[in-house]
């Protein structure tokens, strides 16, 4: 019963913490709430009229929702780049950032689930994926594997930080023998969630654009570039607007991870381009459509060349120590890299896989305002959840939230 009292006290104190703050904090939360409500309104239209209100069709059946899902799986997996050095390699420089990274993973995974629900048309069809009730089709279906690995990873990223913060809330140190097995498991599971997502695309034989042996490794490389880049930006915001001070050497160490991952990602991109264009076959038509257009259809050209330009410039700048160690330059590079990989793993990966169709038909896809509204609402939901988690965690880590024994 004593632990339940502590838990109740933690919930009450957390609610008190997240409902108080500066004017900037309330403006931020108010802005997110408005965007969430706009997203809910757009989603209500989709529920009422069906997926016909989106830009998706019989030819291009995955669009903005699945693009964001694929990208966010990588953001969630990136937390492992902080978990491993902190919990396993005992690098104290990462200790300040690891809880923030895991909170970001939780928010990203919740957004992943929300995007899948949006893409399915609505929550009413989720029962089809419940084992024993629907047709889960495990282990034959890669979608079933994806559902399992994502939900297990979500549980891991909720349970470990919760245990640590729960102990710190009581003024106690977390027991290593309790959280370390889960931390080790999360390292392997983070790799699994991205590889399984890549295998989901690779296993579709009718989509030659995705039948690439480098797809899984490149998923990981891009994830370990974009995810830590976002963590750096979040840590910079936290450092500026809260009392939770993150040392520069921590940010610079994460920047080194971003740099190496971005370099590997760029090398793999060059390898893929060589494979597609040096000895092209009819299976290269999707790549031709993406990078040069096909039969006068060029809707994705501005997107992909913007992504490549930002990717190359950011990676080149990060390669030089003097530029990377300048925090203002680092933040700019992180923004560029994040946007570039979002485009590349979104529109640049999902949409071209459907174009041209099996019979050579080219039907271009662009998202509608409804899709954009729902997408912005889900991103705002993720930011809202992360802000709540981060504010509570920071309060506990700073010692402002402590269990008051009677």
Automatic annotation (TrEMBL):
This protein's UniProt keywords: Cell membrane, Membrane, Transmembrane, Transmembrane helix
Statement: the UniProt record of this protein carries the keyword Cell membrane: yes
Transmembrane segments: 27-47, 62-83, 104-130, 142-166, 178-201, 221-242, 254-274, 300-320, 329-355, 375-396
Major location (coarse): membrane
Cellular-component GO terms for this entry: plasma membrane
NCBIfam families per record: DsrP
UniProt similarity note: Belongs to the NrfD family.
Protein name: Hdr menaquinol oxidoreductase integral membrane subunit
């Amino acid at each position: 019963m004593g632990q339940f009292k502590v838990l109740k006290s933690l919930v009450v104190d957390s609610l008190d913490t997240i409902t108080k703050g500066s004017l900037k904090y309330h403006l931020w939360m108010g802005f997110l709430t408005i965007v969430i409500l706009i997203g809910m309104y757009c989603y209500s239209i989709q529920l009422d009229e069906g997926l016909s209100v989106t830009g998706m069709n019989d030819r291009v059946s995955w669009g903005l929702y699945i693009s964001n899902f694929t990208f966010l799986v990588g953001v969630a997996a990136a937390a492992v780049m902080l978990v491993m050095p902190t919990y396993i390699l005992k690098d104290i420089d990462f200790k300040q950032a690891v809880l923030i990274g895991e909170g970001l993973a939780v928010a990203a995974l919740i957004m992943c689930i929300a995007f899948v629900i949006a893409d399915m048309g609505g929550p009413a069809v989720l029962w089809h994926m419940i084992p024993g009730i629907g047709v889960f089709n495990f282990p034959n279906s890669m979608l079933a594997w994806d559902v399992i690995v994502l939900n297990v990873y979500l549980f891991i990223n909720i349970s470990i930080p919760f245990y640590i913060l729960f102990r710190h809330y009581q003024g106690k140190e977390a027991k290593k023998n309790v959280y370390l097995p889960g931390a080790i498991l999360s390292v392997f599971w983070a790799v699994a969630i991205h590889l399984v997502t890549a295998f989901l695309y690779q296993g579709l034989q009718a989509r030659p654009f995705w039948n690439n042996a480098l797809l899984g490794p490149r998923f990981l490389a891009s994830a370990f570039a974009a995810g830590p880049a976002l963590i750096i930006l979040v840590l910079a915001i936290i450092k500026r607007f809260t009392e939770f001070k993150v040392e520069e050497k921590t940010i610079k160490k994460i920047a080194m991870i971003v740099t190496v991952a971005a370099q590997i990602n760029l090398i793999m991109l060059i390898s893929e381009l060589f494979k597609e264009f040096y000895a092209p076959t009819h299976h290269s038509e999707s790549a031709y459509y993406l990078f040069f257009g096909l039969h006068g259809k060029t809707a994705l050209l501005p997107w992909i060349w913007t992504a490549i330009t930002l990717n190359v410039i950011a990676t080149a700048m990060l390669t030089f120590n003097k530029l990377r160690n300048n925090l203002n330059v680092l933040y700019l590079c992180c923004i560029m890299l994040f946007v570039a990989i979002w485009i590349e793993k979104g529109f640049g990966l999902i949409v071209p896989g459907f174009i041209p169709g099996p019979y050579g038909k080219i039907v271009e896809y662009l998202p509608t305002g409804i899709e954009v509204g729902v997408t912005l609402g889900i991103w705002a939901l993720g930011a809202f959840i992360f802000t709540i988690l981060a504010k509570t965690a920071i309060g506990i880590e700073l010692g402002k939230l402590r269990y008051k024994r009677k």
